[in-house]
Amino acid sequence: MTPIALTIAGSDPSGGAGIQADLKTFHRFCCYGTSVLTLITAQNTRGVARVDLLGEEVVLAQLEAVWSDLPPAALKTGAIGSATLIAAVAGFLATRRGPPLVLDPVMISKHGHRLLPDDAVAALTGRLLPLAAVVTPNWHEAAALTGLAVGDTASARTAAAALRDAGARAVLIKGGAGADGLAADLLLDETGELELPALRLATRATHGTGCTFAAALTANLALGHGLRESAVRAKAFIHHAIATAPGIGGGLGPVNHWA
User: Fold this and answer.
1) 228, part of any domain
2) Which of the following is catalytic: 210, 212, 218, 235?
3) Is residue 253 part of a domain?
4) Could you tell me the residue range of the domain that residue 146 belongs to?
5) Which of 24, 76, 110, 174 is an active site residue?
């Protein structure tokens, strides 16, 4: 039976991030992708021009429609956009515990556009974080979620521990600068710490990398792999996806979602 993966996130009409990137990635890993739209952006590889949130009732209706017919084996959240929507999504998911939730705390786009207001951060940490099997912030997001300065591997470890203390079962902090030109992501779970190194690539193909990585992690969990194996597989995939990016767009280009 084909595993079902669900993404709860915003739309990117340029196809490099958000719902579109998630569904492409699910398909790449032979999962059937479903989606619940939370917000609509007007963006491309050059920047974000506009963000419009959907209403709470519309988001909840989508969740109910998907869950009642196509319950996911694993799911992820991306850009949700407001404290009200975060509370609504968290309330729905709290009554349907079971499949692992990958919480990608999308707060700022690669172009620097803020996608989550300050008043929604408390809702994210207080309502969604305790439901997450793993949360996948980058350094900037980890700092915003914890209030700690995150600028090196040691401080990333401290932030990861703080997020576990706040209720996340596991934390995967992306974007660390490792030794010898490596980009070392850090996974902290109940068994300890795992570094996920890869050669740092000099590229402009960085649009949607966080979404795509979290979607690959979700897909592998839906396939039945454990968290650590899923993280290793997702890291290998996103590195290859960046290395083989199609080279399109005039700004920060998308990755290769079929890598």
Assistant:
1) yes
2) 210
3) no
4) 4-243
5) 174
In-domain check, residue 153 = yes
Q: Does some domain include residue 256?
A: no
Say what the pTM is. Answer: 0.95
Cα 129 from chain centroid (whole Å): 13
Residue 124: CB partners within 8 Å, gap ≥ 6?
80, 86, 103, 105, 116, 145
Q: Among this protein's residues, is 2 annotated catalytic? A: no
In tens, the pLDDT along 59-103 reads: 999 999 999 999 999 999 999 989 999 999 999 999 998 899 999
User: To the nearest 5 percent, what fractions of the chain are helix, strand and coil?
Assistant: 40, 25, 35
**Domains in the chain, number:** 1
User: Of residues 38, 146, 209, 212, which has the active-site annotation?
Assistant: 209
Q: How confident is the model at residue 161 (pLDDT cuts 50, 70, 90)?
A: very high
Q: What is the pLDDT of residue 111?
A: 58
Is 208 labeled as catalytic in the residue annotation? yes
